[in-house]
Amino acid sequence: MKKLLILLILIGAWHHYYHIETAPSIGPGIVAASPPYQYNADSKQIRLDDFILSPHAEFEVEARVLAASRHYLDRKGWLAPLVLVIGWGNMSDEAIYQNVDIDQFNHLYEWTNNAPTLITDEEILTSTANIHLIPANNAIKEKMYDIKIGDVVSLRGSLVSIRRTTGWKWPTSTSRTDKGENSGEILYLKAIEIIQPGS
Description:
Layout (H helix, E strand, L loop, with lengths): L1 H16 L19 E4 L5 E3 L2 E20 L4 H5 L2 E6 L6 H4 L2 E6 L2 E6 L7 H6 L1 E8 L2 H7 L7 E13 L4 E2 L14 E11 L4
Parallel strand pairs: 7-10
Antiparallel strand pairs: 1-3, 2-3, 3-4, 3-8, 4-7, 5-6, 8-9, 8-10
């Protein structure tokens, strides 16, 4: 009985802290056509405890959430508790992206393309991004946690590289074509909206 109770507590804790729901199906069709938009950033640094955030570019995007994961137990997770894999163009079309298996691990992501006749690996690379979200305030943080996999979201903020006073560094990507470690975008999130398709 005691073991069962502990198991139920652990399951409940996992569901509360890590589980992310899936949104209802929208159906086939592109729902976010345009790639992210970047422009010159305010160069003023942002201080979070002993972390210093240096802006590289302002960043705006409307995209489909293809995968999502929560992180709490390391430095990156303390700063960016939610990581989204987002897609636009053909990677916002359910009929296409449902043929692409996306896995998240250690703040990175990878994919397996099960339908190369529908979409190429190159297009998947240039139509997706791994976004680490650092909320600018508690209201944005709460809104972040409303996101479901499959939602269409609007995100706006600054792409930032991070260094700690101890010397630790975490650089952001500003490109849609890089791969591997440090290819993810670190977004200091200033505005977020969950969009109802067709609205």
